[in-house]
Amino acid sequence: MFALCDVNAFYASCETVFRPDLWGKPVVVLSNNDGCVIARNAEAKALGVKMGDPWFKQKDLFRRCGVVCFSSNYEL
To answer: Whole-prediction pTM value?
Structure first.
């Protein structure tokens, strides 16, 4: 038996499961080579972070607003 599940902000949600101290903070997960945003939680979305945003264009916002960035972890 196989199951196909679609989870909102999957990688960002998984990071907060493993790091409860991040609950309520803006979290984004970056693509291969940390090029662009591939997942963001509701707090990051509220800051205007869009899917596919290049990291280098958003890094000032991330630092200013305390956005926590993770490299992609495909093993999840």
So the answer is: 0.84
